[in-house]
C-alpha cells in the first residue's frame, strides 16, 4: 500500500490534517511547549526498539552529520510544531490547515534560489492559485486587510511555522544516506532536546499546563501518527518523487483538515474557506500535472 508515492503522500496529508484537529483539542488541556516536548518524548520511546540497531550500524554516518541532523530536528520538527500548536490557541484548525499550503511555494522558491530548479508555467499558475487561497484564508476573506498588515496572531505564527518547514524540506536534499528508522530516531531525539528549553521557558513564564486525560490522549495520537508515521512516510516520499512534488501533497492537508474540523470540532466552514480550498486543490492538480508531464518527457 505504501509503495505508491501518491498513496503514501496522501496518508501523510491525512495524518497532518489530523494534527491540527488534535492541536486544537489540546487547547486548555496541555500547554503548547509541553505538548511539543512530550510529543517527541513519546515518539522517541515508541521508535527506540526498532531504530537502535540501525543507529548503531550507521553511527559513523550519523556522527559525521550530527550538527546538520540536529538542526533538521530542531527547526523542522520542534520549531515547526511549537509554532503550530501555539498558533492554534489564536486561530481555527481550518485556517491553520489551509495556511500550511504555502509550504510548496516556499520549497519551490528555495529550490530555485539554491539549486536553480525552475518551475514550469503550469507550476507557476498552481503556486499563484495556492498563494491566493492562503491569502484569502489569512485575511478571513478580506484581502484589503493584508495591505494594513492586520493579521491574526495565530495566522501570523502559522505562516512562520510554514516557513520553517518549507526550509526543512529544501534542506532534506543534503540529508545523509541513512535508513529511515535511524533518520527519524535521530531527528526525534534532536527535536526532544531542542524543545526542552522552550518547555522550560513556558514553565518560567507561568504558562505551563500539564496534560489531563484528554491532553494525554492528544499527545499519544500526535506522537504516533503525525510524528512517527507521517514524518517517516514524508521522508520516503521525498526520496521517491523529490522535494518539489512531495511537498505539493501538503496542499491536501487543508482538505482533510477542514473536513475533520467541521465534523469533530464543529467549526464553521465559511464561503471564503471553500473558495480557498478550491484554489488550493486547483493549484496542486496543475502543478502535479506539470511535474508528471515533465518527468515523462525526460
Automatic annotation (TrEMBL):
User: Which SUPFAM superfamilies has this protein been placed in?
Assistant: Multidrug resistance efflux transporter EmrE
Give start and end of each EamA domain: 6-138, 153-286
Q: Which Pfam families match?
A: EamA
A single GO cellular-component term on record: plasma membrane
Tell me, in one coarse class, where this protein mainly resides.
membrane
What keywords are annotated for this sequence in UniProt? Cell membrane, Membrane, Transmembrane, Transmembrane helix
| PANTHER family associated with the record | INNER MEMBRANE TRANSPORTER (PTHR32322), S-ADENOSYLMETHIONINE_S-ADENOSYLHOMOCYSTEINE TRANSPORTER (PTHR32322:SF18)
Give the protein name, as stated in the record: DMT family transporter
